[in-house]
Amino acid sequence: MSCLHIRGIFLTLCLAPTALSSLHPECEYIFQLEKEERNCLEYIAAQANGSHEGCWPFWDAVVCWPHAVIGETVNRGCPAVFSLFKNNTGSVSRNCTSGGWSRPFPPYHIACSVDDDIPETEESYFATVKLIYTIGYSISLVVLAVAVLILLLFRRLRCARNFIHIQLFITFILKAVAVFIKDATLFSSDDINHCTFSTFACKASVVFCHYCVMANFFWLLVEALYLNSLLLSSFYHSRRCLWGFSLLGWGVPVLFIILWIGSRVYFEDTECWDINEDSPYWWIIKGPIVVSIAVNFMLFVNIIRILIQKLNPRLIQFNNSSQYRRLTKSTLLLIPLFGTHYMFFNFLPDYFSINLRLCIELCMGSFQGLLVAILYCFLNQEVQKEVHMQWLRWQEGSYGVVSPAAKGSQMDTPF
Question: What is the pTM of this model?
Fold first, then answer.
């Protein structure tokens, strides 16, 4: 199977914390073959002083064949690298004859279920995934930009809660932009071998992508911390508090990114910095993300507990269906805002159904920004009221007195 057929598949390294440490299948295929080839050549060199009778060990670009005597049949299992694209447990054999090794039987493409359609099938699948997440990020980017403009333009919508929402929306926008930049840099041409590609531009695009992902997770954490503080106390969110949230959301990721860049420059300055197999320095980025997800999940559980208590503070139990609906609605609304769905990804092994992981983490993840913008901006009653008032003013061509009912929205601390 040729790895050249699936060149250009997007790396999942910068889009989800659970997939960040895994290699792209094509690179894994190449590197495993190179590793097995090195081991085979070392084995051949070690056998150089041995018996010269029979068939010499050799590497056929797929499997390492050992020394064998004439008349012997050697069986070898299908290479492990084939399992990256399709599970197989077949085996291939060769006979050692007086004229040397025979051809493999059955052929690799039959014994290992690797036919000519697999590269095209893989290419088609990943091309479809790329098309879906490109559409998802494009739509999310446009909708998020509109949401940010709405929250900034209307003075009555300027409050601490919406300030935090704006920062979160911006991180989703930056993440979408980072994906497009990385695609354009690493996969601008089919002639680029992105497994060994190494330029300043590609490294900068990878660093920018990682920073945007980290900032996105930390602003999800800020959302959870802010909502918990509102529910637990009558905490006054002053300008200093917002500066603290900004430092956590934007500043802390900068610190970890700088540490990671230093570790890559001095210890692992290889390829385009987008491959982190068995790298201990990768935890400089992955560790804080995993911790933020875990903290967010605990805050999410705490908020659900508080909501249950508020629904029935005396008995802490439900006695009508409306309370179930209110709790269910609140829970579903908080899942995309807190990013608690990432807890599921963290428990999946790196190579658990890679096609399913790509579909969930790339395709569904690309629409998360769209979902958050709709739930926390366009479906917000305060936003709808302000937009409706502006629309009426524009239609009437005047900025007259607004009815008291339209002024009744309650806001948080202005910023």
Answer: 0.68
Task: Report the alpha-carbon distance of residue 225 to residue 245 in Å, rounded.
Answer: 9
Residue recorded with tokens 């004229």? 99
Q: For residue 400, with 0-12 CB atoms within 10 Å meaning exposed, 13-18 middle and 19 or more buried, which class applies? A: exposed
Task: Give the pair of three-digit tokens for residue 364.
Answer: 């569904």
Q: What domains can be seen in the chain, in order of their start residue?
A: 3-111 (4.10.1240.10), 118-407 (1.20.1070.10)
Residues 17, 14: Cα–Cα separation, whole Å: 8
Are the C-beta atoms of residues 57 and 65 closer than 8 Å to each other? yes
Provide DSSP, 106-148.
Answer: S-HHHHTT--THHHHHHHHHHHHHHHHHHHHHHHHHHHHHHHH
The tens digit of pLDDT for each residue in 78-123 reads 877 666 555 556 788 999 988 888 888 888 777 776 544 444 555 6
Cβ atoms of residues 78 and 89 within 8 Å: yes
Convert the pLDDT of each residue in 201-256 to its tens digit. 888 888 999 999 999 999 999 988 888 887 776 555 567 788 888 999 999 999 99
Longest CA–CA span in the chain (Å) reads 103
Return the closest-CA partner of residue 262 out of 252, 251, 273. Answer: 273
For residue 65, the cross-strand partners are 58
Q: What is the pLDDT of residues 273-303, one digit of tens each?
A: 876 666 788 889 988 998 998 898 888 888 8
- Cross-sheet strand order for the sheet of 73-77: 73-77, 91-97, 100-101
Among residues of the chain, what percentage have pLDDT more than 70? Answer: 67
